[in-house]
Design a protein that fits this description.
mainly beta; four-stranded antiparallel beta sheet; 15% helix
Length: 144
């Protein structure tokens, strides 16, 4: 979704579904982003644009162990500031803001780091624990 900043009112309401699946090649653990909806308010004041948004979606992400798909809902609120003020800005303002890329970046920040499929067994992926060779004789000596 492209937003032309010069055409924005001082306050603009937004409630739009967006398709971000064309961006998922940039994230190795995401399979798809479904039913993405962006709702909130856009404020424009001179050369500053502030987005106060609620993003809802279903994330399909690879299981950390098995790489099988795991689907979970994700909802978060975010405030994104486009400004020339170097102390407060998130992004530098441009004539056209590509909201898709900004929302995708926010999803990457808010998604789960690790997800686990119900069939995943962590012990299948761990090396068996063994006593260090230097301590084997002690273990045998003080065995109960």
């Amino acid at each position: 979704m492209k937003i032309e900043t010069k055409l924005l009112e001082s306050k603009t309401l937004i409630d739009n579904p967006i398709d971000l699946n064309y961006l998922i090649n940039d994230a190795a653990d995401i399979i798809s982003l479904n039913d993405v909806n962006v709702k909130g308010t856009i404020y424009r004041k001179y050369d500053e644009v502030t987005f106060n948004l609620t993003v809802t979606l279903d994330v399909v992400q690879k299981c950390t162990y098995t790489l099988k798909p795991v689907t979970y809902p994700l909802t978060f609120d975010t405030e994104i500031l486009f400004s020339n003020d170097l102390e407060t800005y998130d992004y530098v303002p441009t004539d056209i803001i590509d909201l898709d890329e900004v929302i995708f970046a926010e999803i990457l920040l808010h998604k789960e780091v690790n997800v686990y499929h119900e069939s995943a067994n962590p012990s299948d992926f761990e090396d068996p624990k063994e006593t260090h060779p230097a301590f084997k004789s002690l273990k045998e000596k003080y065995k109960d």
